[in-house]
Specification:
205 residues; mainly beta; five-stranded antiparallel β-sheet; 15 strands
């Protein structure tokens, strides 16, 4: 079990960047929220290869409510974005990649980052399948610059959800199941502090 939190951006219409479609926003409008918020302008201190990398496996991350204050209750989480660990000096992947099966589940939780179980189902309450099926990653779609490690990379492509998740408050759990790409350079930015979140990861290769 690894206690790590992936830095990513989500979209609601949830670095992750989450894409949000909040209730007070005009029709069709959206905003973006970075979780954990402390990583918006600073790179993480760890990494994870499951979200987009060559390893197939399942990755589950729990964001505590203390990291989600910028997401209004009732917001619809409609997409997410990730960024790569700041180790490459050129964009990735070098060629377009296809992940044959890429499933994203989102739900709530009664757990905390330090009490997560290695049984995935015990950590997530009332999950929905936000997206499933293949995922295409265009060539050079994850930016990379020769920055110092404290400087994060820019965000990669938006992964849109076919089924938005309505945020009800409290902790948020994101579960990714991937059959893996063919690119070992796709290593997601992450944070190791359990104050920011916790995760359970299983790889099968």
């Amino acid at each position: 079990m690894s206690l790590r939190q992936m830095a990513c951006r989500f979209g609601t219409s949830l670095a992750l960047v989450l894409g949000l479609a909040s209730v007070p926003l005009p029709a069709g409008a959206q905003t973006f929220v970075v979780v954990p918020p402390s990583r918006e302008f600073s790179a993480g201190d760890s990494n994870n290869s499951i979200p987009t990398g060559a390893n197939d496996g399942t990755f589950q991350v729990l964001y505590p409510a203390t990291q989600l204050g910028s997401i209004p209750i009732g917001s619809r989480i409609t997409s997410m974005q990730m960024r790569m660990r700041n180790v490459n000096s050129t964009p990735s992947p070098a060629t377009t990649q296809q992940i044959a099966s890429y499933e994203v589940k989102i739900g709530s939780s009664t757990r905390t980052p330090t009490t997560m179980s290695t049984v995935f189902a015990d950590n997530i309450v009332n999950p929905i399948v936000a997206r499933s099926g293949p995922l295409f990653i265009p060539a050079n779609s994850y930016p990379a610059e020769p920055n110092p490690f404290s400087t994060p990379e820019d965000w990669g492509p938006t992964i849109r959800f076919s089924m938005p998740y309505v945020y009800i408050g409290g902790p948020l759990v994101l579960e990714l199941r991937s059959t893996g790409s063919n690119d070992h350079s796709l290593i997601a930015d992450a944070s190791a502090s359990t104050d920011l979140g916790g995760c359970v990861a299983i790889t099968t290769s």
